[in-house]
Amino acid sequence: MPNTLQIDQDDPARQVALANNIRPSILGLDKAELTAIAENMGEKAYRGAQIFQWVYNRGVQSFEDMSDLPNDFRDRLTDTYTISRPESVQEQISEDGTRKWLFGYRDRQKAETVFIPEDERGTLCISSQVGCTLTCRFCHTGTQRLVRNLTAGEIIGQVMAARDSLGEWPTPTDGTRALTNIVLMGMGEPLYNFDEVAKAMRIVMAGDGIAVSRRKITLSTSGVVPEIKRCGEELRVNLAISLHAANDETRNMLMPINKKYPLKDLMEACRNYPGVSSARRITLEYVMLKGINDSEQDARDLVKLVKDVHCKFNLIPFNSWPGTPYECSSTKTIGRFQDILARASITCPIRTPRGRDILAACGQLKTNSEKLSVRERKAQAEKAWAEKEAEL
Ligand code: SAH
Ligand code: SF4
Questions:
Q1: How far apart are CA 41 and CA 24, in angstroms?
Q2: Which of ligand 1's atoms lies nearest the C-alpha of 321?
Q3: What is the pLDDT of residue 323?
Q4: Which single residue of 124, 151, 270, 279 has CA 20 to 30 Å from 10?
Q5: 22-31, 91-100, 142-151 — which is least confidently predicted?
Q6: Ligand 1 within 6 A of CB of 359
Q7: Is residue 82 over pLDDT 80?
Q8: CA dist., res. 255 & res. 251, Å (int)
Q9: DSSP assignment, residue 306?
Q10: Does the C-beta of 365 come closer than 6 Å to ligand 2?
Q11: 370-379 — which CB contacts under 8 Å span 24+ positions?
């Protein structure tokens, strides 16, 4: 089989494909790379843009369907590549309509993707890594080892496969889209895989691609301070920060990354985030943990901490998972906490948990889970955190 693919040979999925003589998928290739493929195959450069549009805007899954390409070029593309998506290993639908997919990649690694339909919009929550290197104590993914970064193809593949499942091709232009927003809030830390995330998001944002505007894309980070500026300059998408504590002591305990990038540096990065303004605020995510970060003093400290930051809060009731040491704050406590922020004129809605019954809510994602007792799970979580921290 001819192999004209000269791009991205480090991509693990492509290596598996090539080693097994499986045609590689072109998902994740941008217009310049598709143009290079067309030229390498002796075709005119503009064929690259045509393929781009067929793949990312019209969602075709076969080169045969690209009706404005010459027949013999379509045949040669079919012999050499696929447009295949990640395999949907499992799809679950929650009683509230939330859908969760477990997508499998060519090297058999798996990661989860969640679609949350609401009245006015539909949000796809995508993963950037298999597992996560960080060890945030309240997060289920944090108990899972980092297996690897997802490639741009695997990141955009989640969007493509979700839209296949929603039956949303070609991209509707009449305002009837089901999938309107994208959040990088699934498994992994997107700013530890920025290049691949950025490449995928550029395809998502392209008008002749998936065509979701940067205003409808939100990247959530645990606070990788050096990469925050780059995200604002290069992608200009909305930023969300997993804040979760009002002081360094609590944050160090809940999110060990805070020891590297403490609150002072994080707030500075938020103040300087390119494009931030009172009309375009940073979202500060705050998970409500009973007796840990939910006191009235915590709320007052937060008001001081974010005094000169253009921000809004998202108060997230803690979503439980098997083996967690934490509990969610009571409704009354969350209400009091919200009142203190609101009195300081801070927007602070309480996020309604979605898809809890299928473990699709924030922080519940984890792949390869085994059947264990609660005590075994607790021990497993402690062990995983200790091992990961020893490696950091
Ligand atoms: N790694 C990135 C993005 C993925 S986490 C980050 O940390 O921002 C997505 C959001 O879910 C984050 O705000 C995270 O702090 C929050 N979260 C994690 N575990 C949670 C849980 N058990 N309950 C509620 N929210 C949780
Ligand atoms: Fe990783 Fe985010 Fe979970 Fe922390 S909250 S462990 S950074 S996925």
A1: 16
A2: 22
A3: 87
A4: 124
A5: 142-151
A6: no
A7: yes
A8: 5
A9: T
A10: no
A11: 372/322, 372/323, 374/322, 374/323, 376/323, 377/322, 377/323, 378/323, 378/325, 379/323
Beta strands 181-184 and 217-221, pairing class:
parallel
Domain borders along the chain are 12-84, 87-358
- 352 or 47: which carries more pLDDT confidence? 47
- Examine the pLDDT at 359 and tell me if it is beyond 90: no
Helix (H) or strand (E) holding 76: helix 71-80
Q: Mind listing the pLDDT tens digit for each residue in 173-227?
A: 888 899 999 999 999 999 999 999 999 999 999 999 999 999 999 999 999 999 9
Q: Which ligand is nearest to the CA of 289?
A: 1
- Domain 87-358: CATH superfamily, name plus number: Aldolase class I (3.20.20.70)
Domain 12-84 top-level CATH class = mainly alpha
From the CA of 254, how far away is ligand 2's center (Å)?
A: 11
Q: What is the pLDDT of residues 98-121, one digit of tens each?
A: 999 999 998 889 999 999 999 999
What is the residue with the minimal CA distance to atom 1 of ligand 1? Answer: 189
Cα separation, 170 vs 166, in Å, equals 12
86 phi/psi in degrees, rounded to 5 = -60, 155
pTM of structure: 0.90
